[in-house]
From TrEMBL:
Name of the gene encoding the protein in the UniProt record: rsfB
PANTHER family given in the database record: ANTI-SIGMA FACTOR ANTAGONIST TM_1081-RELATED-RELATED, ANTI-SIGMA-F FACTOR ANTAGONIST RSFB
Stated name of the protein: Anti-sigma factor antagonist
Alphabetical list of Gene3D superfamilies matching this protein: STAS domain (3.30.750.24)
Family: Belongs to the anti-sigma-factor antagonist family.
InterPro entries given in the database record: Anti-sigma_ant, STAS_dom, STAS_dom_sf
Residue ranges occupied by any STAS domain in the UniProt entry: 15-123
MF (Gene Ontology): anti-sigma factor antagonist activity
UniProt superkingdom: Bacteria
Organism in which the protein naturally occurs: Nocardia macrotermitis
Amino acid sequence: MTNTSGDAHPLADAMTTSVSVHDEATVLTVAGEVDLATAPALENAIEATLGSKPPVVIIDLTQVSFLASAGMAALVGAHKRAGETTRIMVVADGPATGRQLKVTGLDKVFAMHTTLDGALTALHQN
């Protein structure tokens, strides 16, 4: 069924997530716009990813074109839910993601990297 009325959640499909596993890290790749309409879907994807209690979750935001405060709140929520059992790393670069995370100080909360390869390399060095 297709919603053509344009009233329910017209931007609900503006963001996609996918999960993959690289060694001991579970990678949640996010693409599109993370805003007030799509942040709940991001929170659900993060919750599902954390559910299996992986040792490391890398949230890859390099394909995100817009990151609103609701998206940043979802990242903070992920950090709180992960607790001591799961290490959270964030991959973000450029004006759409990296700059916002630095301006808000969230780059001090998360281990941030500019590429997924960089995050995976750092993981193996620790």
